[in-house]
Amino acid sequence: xxxxLVAARKAANVTQVELGERIGQRQTFVSKFELGExxxxxxxxxxxxxxxxxxxxxxxxxxxKG
Length: 66
What we know:
Layout: H1 2-11, H2 16-23, H3 27-34, H4 42-52, H5 56-65
Helix pairs in contact: 2-3
């Protein structure tokens, strides 16, 4: 699911810094979850999706398809 989230962020032309600002976190927070060093809970996942204009349900369905 994180791969889809990263791809969606990049497709939206949003940098890690910009995403961090949108969700009230630092760039390092974004980097850590994108690298798999930190997990996102469900609420954080939805918040990140909304910040980049992605549909969380679509990303979950795509991840499930593998």
